Amino acid sequence: MGKKLVDVMMEQHSPCVVSCTAVPGADQFYINVGFSFTEPQQGHDIFHIEINREELDKQLLNNNDTGLSVRPYDKKDFKALVDYDTEAKGYRSDAYVSMMVDCFPTYVAVHNDDRLAGYVAAFIKREEIVLDGLCADSDSIACHLFRKVLDEFPTRNNVKLQVPTSRLFLSQLGVICSSSKYNRYSLGQPTPSPLVKIYNVSDCDYSY
């Protein structure tokens, strides 16, 4: 049944390249239905971390982000947010951005001239903060956005991160309690997305 479903999907969307991340234990399924291990491999590393808010605040004191503010997303930000998301990931996805801002608390980092410098969304699942996406122009801006999420959920210090394998910065902001890895598989040869602005991805987001 699994291969038949994949074949039907490919017939409906042919010609196209399909890329996915496999949860632990599902690798053989994708191999059996024709997927190949993607090279260069940029799977998703999953980290469950415990945050030390005081240490994060100390790091923020050393940042020099004058002229930057972090505020809740507003509907007037939608076009700029889609454009920023497209630049960060290398492909356009209005549907993903719409889902994100409709379903989860979302914040944007904005320069004095109203240019977006990043965004973050998050929600609570099983007593844990789950980042649903964090893109930013720099490590320091990513820290400001991350801190805003912690302000949104002041009683929670456990956070789930889902990050591309080469983008582990956020995992250094807390103590890693557990981790796992989602390998990436493809049908066809995908074009790698730029990663310089990607700090955390969503289960609905397949940047790599």
What's the quick description here?
By secondary structure, the protein is an alpha+beta fold. 30% of the residues lie in helices and 33% in strands. The chain contains six helices and ten strands; from the N terminus they run αβαββαβααβββαβββ.
Would you write up a description of this structure?
There is one protein chain. It is globular, with a radius of gyration of 18 Å. The mean pLDDT is 87. It has 6 helices and 10 strands. By secondary structure, it is of the alpha+beta class. A hairpin with a 2-residue loop joins strand 6 (116-125) and strand 7. Strands 1, 2, 3, 4, 5, 6, 7, 8, 9 and 10 form a 10-stranded mixed beta sheet that branches. Helix 3 packs across helix 6. The longest helix has 14 residues, at 139-152. 30% of the residues lie in helices and 33% in strands. The chain has helices at residues 2-13, 27-32, 53-61, 78-89, 94-103, 139-152, and strands spanning 18-22, 36-37, 44-51, 68-72, 106-111, 116-125, 128-136, 158-164, 174-187, 198-200. It has one domain (44-182, 194-200): Gcn5-related N-acetyltransferase (GNAT) (Aminopeptidase), CATH 3.40.630.30. The two termini are 28 Å apart.
